[in-house]
């Protein structure tokens, strides 16, 4: 790295300031993601998130088809668990199946 001249210091300070602002925003965004991981939902909020009726959610809870937390007579859901549950039902595309077959045949 080359030494800076006195005239270049203001420009360099602006660049450093811009980079610090970017890093601060990135840290805030990451911390918000972590907070959402532990977000607790009641049945009405889970119903809205999943776009299912409350009675359907109760049915899935009784059949143990959906991740749930019980405290007394109340049930709660973690947003990240519901999102993971939704993703677990993903159907692979034809292309993904072909790639899996090719990977297995190489082993």
H/E element order: HEHHEEHH
Give the overall silhouette. Answer: flat
Given as residue ranges, the uncertain stretches (5+ residues, pLDDT < 50) are: none
Query: How would you write the strand order of the largest sheet?
Result: 1-3-2
Q: What is the arithmetic mean of pLDDT?
A: 87
- Briefly note the structural class of the backbone: mainly alpha
How far do the termini sit from each other?
48 Å
Tally of individual domains: 2
> Percent of residues in beta strands?
5-15%
Estimated helix fraction: 55-70%
Protein name: Helix-turn-helix domain-containing protein
InterPro entries: HTH_17 (IPR041657), SinI_DNA-bd (IPR010093)
GO molecular function: DNA binding
Domain Helix-turn-helix: 40-89
Question: What this model shows, in words?
Answer:
By secondary structure, the chain is mainly alpha-helical. It has two domains: 8-36; 40-89, no CATH class. 64% of the residues lie in helices and 9% in strands. A three-stranded antiparallel sheet has the order 1-3-2. A hairpin with a 2-residue loop joins strand 2 (69-71) and strand 3 (74-78).
List its salient traits.
107 residues; mainly alpha; 2 domains; 5 helices; flat; Helix-turn-helix domain-containing protein; HTH_17; DNA binding
């Amino acid at each position: 790295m080359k030494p800076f001249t006195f005239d270049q210091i203001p420009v360099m300070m602006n660049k450093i300031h811009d980079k610090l602002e970017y890093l601060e925003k990135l840290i805030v965004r990451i911390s918000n993601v972590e907070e959402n991981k532990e977000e607790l939902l009641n049945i009405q909020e889970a119903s809205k998130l999943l776009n299912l009726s409350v009675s359907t959610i109760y049915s899935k809870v009784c059949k143990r088809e959906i991740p749930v937390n019980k405290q007394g007579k109340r049930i709660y859901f973690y947003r990240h668990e519901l999102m993971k549950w939704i993703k677990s039902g993903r159907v692979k595309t034809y292309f993904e199946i072909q790639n899996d077959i090719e990977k297995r045949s190489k082993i």
